[in-house]
């Protein structure tokens, strides 16, 4: 029988929590194209310090009205009450309404986290109580410490929201800590997650335009997603949806077609190849110059 050691690492691993399931190491891309919106994400989820798995999640949800949301973050459990609050607010189809509802829901959940996990450590229960009697019951050092913790409190997830307003115009915006929105309508695309930089760089390199026809847009966006797979934690499995303003529902990209696009993308050279020989010729003499002939010393010539 094996003796149980209290110092064993098996006894120090905490039990998994919903907060340990993270979408932070991911990529989600939304883009406007001619006549519609396209959304792409990987399908990987990870459990911090434990394991990760591909083809395990679809990171797309209704945000209310004509709006869809994709999610990236370290604590996906916080997204559920935010979605529920937005649904309860029942925003209208216009942009201002969904933005206001999204901000309200995000800030409400952030306050809930503060009241559940931070304020009780200082003998307080609500933000209202903190604002009214916080300075009276807390020492100066504790006041500063608590104020800093409240300021730094983050929900741990970010949303990439896209959809159509009541006039049929498409929009893309993000919702992030502490409950602010940033808009990318004029740019026509954006990405979130650990693969964000790779995806955005790829779209700039491909000269993506919001006026691209759907077939070109899908090809460029999937190329951006494939490029983002070089980032830590981005899965290869891909979920792609197309939403046209005159459609009543979403349309998913067939996996066989996606695989065909991937194979063509993988076969493309990632750097210029037809000029390799010219480059070699141009620099061969500079990098490896011909050996110089040994000089005949004047002494030896004079002696002869």
- Which CATH class of the domain at 16-99 and 153-267? Alpha Beta
Kindly report how far apart the N and C termini lie: 95 Å
CATH architecture classification of the domain at 16-99 and 153-267: 4-Layer Sandwich
Derived from helix and strand composition plus strand pairing, the structural class reads alpha+beta
Number of strands: 13
The biggest sheet, with number of strands, parallel, antiparallel or mixed sense and barrel status, is: 5 strands, antiparallel
Number of helices: 9
Rg over CA atoms: 28 Å
Could you say which overall geometry the principal axes of the C-alpha atoms support? flat
User: What name does CATH use for the topology of the domain at 16-99 and 153-267?
Assistant: Glutamine Phosphoribosylpyrophosphate, subunit 1, domain 1
Write a brief structural summary:
The protein has helices spanning 79-89, 95-117, 127-137, 140-152, 196-205, 214-228, 255-267, 276-287, 298-303, and strands at 21-22, 28-33, 36-42, 45-47, 51-53, 60-64, 67-73, 157-164, 170-176, 180-183, 189-192, 238-244, 251-252. By secondary structure, the chain is α+β, with helices and mostly antiparallel strands.
């Amino acid at each position: 029988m094996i003796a149980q050691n209290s110092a064993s690492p098996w006894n120090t691993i905490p039990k998994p929590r919903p907060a340990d399931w993270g979408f932070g190491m991911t990529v989600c891309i939304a883009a406007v194209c001619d006549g519609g919106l396209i959304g792409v994400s990987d399908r990987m989820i990870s459990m911090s310090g434990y394991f990760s798995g591909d083809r395990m999640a679809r990171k797309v949800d209704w945000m209310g009205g004509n709006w869809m949301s994709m999610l990236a973050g370290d604590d996906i459990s916080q997204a559920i009450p935010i979605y529920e609050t937005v649904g309860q607010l029942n925003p209208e189809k216009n942009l201002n309404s969904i933005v206001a509802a999204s901000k309200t829901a995000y800030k409400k959940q952030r306050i809930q986290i503060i009241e559940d996990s931070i304020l009780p450590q200082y003998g307080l229960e609500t933000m209202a109580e903190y604002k009214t009697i916080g300075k009276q019951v807390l020492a100066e050092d504790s006041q500063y410490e608590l104020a800093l913790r409240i300021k730094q409190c983050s929900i741990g997830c970010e949303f990439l929201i896209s959809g159509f307003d009541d006039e049929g115009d498409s929009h893309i915006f993000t919702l992030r800590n502490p409950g602010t929105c940033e808009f990318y309508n004029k740019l026509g695309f954006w990405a979130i997650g650990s693969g964000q930089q790779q995806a955005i760089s790829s779209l700039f390199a491909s000269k993506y335009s919001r006026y691209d026809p759907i077939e070109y847009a899908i090809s460029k966006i999937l190329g951006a997603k494939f490029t983002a797979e070089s980032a830590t934690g981005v899965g290869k499995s891909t979920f792609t949806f197309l939403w046209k303003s005159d459609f009543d529902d979403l349309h998913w990209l067939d996996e066989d077609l996606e695989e065909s696009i991937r194979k063509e993308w993988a076969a493309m050279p990632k750097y210029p190849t037809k000029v390799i020989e010219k480059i070699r010729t141009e620099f061969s003499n500079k990098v490896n110059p011909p050996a110089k002939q040994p000089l005949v010393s004047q002494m030896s010539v004079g002696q002869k």
